[in-house]
Amino acid sequence: MTRLFIQPISRLEGSVHVPGDKSISHRALLLGGLADGDSTIEGLLKGSDCMATFGCLRAMGIAVEEENQRVIVHGRGVHGLQESSHPLDCVRSGTTMRLLAGLLAGQKFNSKLNGDEQLLRRPMRRVADPLNQMGADVRTKNGFAPIEIHGKALNGIQYKMPVSSAQVKSAIVLAGLYAKGETVVHQPGPTRDHTERMLAFMGARIEEDGLTVRVTETEKLLPLSRTNKPVFFIPGDISSAAFIMAAGCLVADAQVCVQRVGVNPTRTGLLDVLAEMGAQVRVDLQGIVHDKGEPVADVTVESSRLKAVSIGGEVVVRMIDEFPMLAVIASQAQGKTIVRNAEELRVKETDRIATVVEELRKLGAKIDATDDGFIVEGSTPLHGGLVNSHGDHRLAMALAIAGLIAKETVVVERAECIGDSFTGFIPLMQSLGAVMHEE
Ligand code: S3P
User: Which residue is catalytic, options 21, 49, 298, 321?
Assistant: First the structure.
């Protein structure tokens, strides 16, 4: 167990790159494995969640090589996966488990998906139900993992998702690549669309029309890198950049820039909320990585006087991973911030409504849980203390940023989970002037 010690600081400055986008990295590995040929990828996140996907692919016969900063996935075609000799270990990664459930439902072999205790507590019926409607045989243990999948021939369906979840949508879309006819998914809100963009780039028959996605059975996918585009670039993760952006707003004398961050509109909810709070944020668009690809920008943030906001509806999905950080930001804004319609936070790596409230209160924040969000009283000075990540990477980092502006030292217990999504978080923060170390 690692403890992270964070000292208060008054200055933060510099320009950094954050590691590659976690959601895009998972998809690049999985879809690269289904391509006809090699995909050379730069910027892949090597965090433990993506390494879980990497391990599962290897167990199914997909070779992945590392070459300097690049990774080469040797795709074996849409029908090239092989049965694993042992259960596939998704570790703590919900994305790995749910996307694989979809991908494996229509294979000609059987699979078993397992993971760490934390992952075994997360709901899996949300993927099993629609897949079974497609003719799959996907069995959960009372709605939770381990998941047993007996490969079956699938049929396309029309599915109206009850919750806004990109993992569920992607699972159905991946199964749709193997299903007879057309698979149509209607989402209640705009979830991240990296799977759709990447599959379109690979030549799949897939269309996005507002909140509806249509996909048709596919026999061939082009690699992510080609002769005329020899490297597939993964942009920086906006959900990791969020911690630097928050630190930039909160530290008394700060100017920080995060370069080449992905700003896909399905992910930029925090930028919209920060603008509404009056934050000094500048987004300089740098272009689009590949056709049908991902927009990338340099984001600069300065110390800001913030005001409270009410958050609810569609923007919640577009910033679903940013709420632990938002709670800390709100504790410093003038007025009362209210978050609604965010009940999905209860089924993330932890129940993020409960854990965020419990831990921030230990630092003096005035925050109350509601059924579907929380209410934060702003302009509250934070004091030092001992807090716990509960094994949740985003909570650990949000607490570390709180430590930059607390009056005394903050110590975050169980901080090793930061590496699930943000490799090199501590040295990167130190390069900006933060004073933190682990023991
Ligand atoms: C993800 C989707 C989101 C997000 C998770 C990554 C993805 O989960 O919270 O960190 O890569 O598709 P849900 O689909 O459960 O909302």
Answer: 321
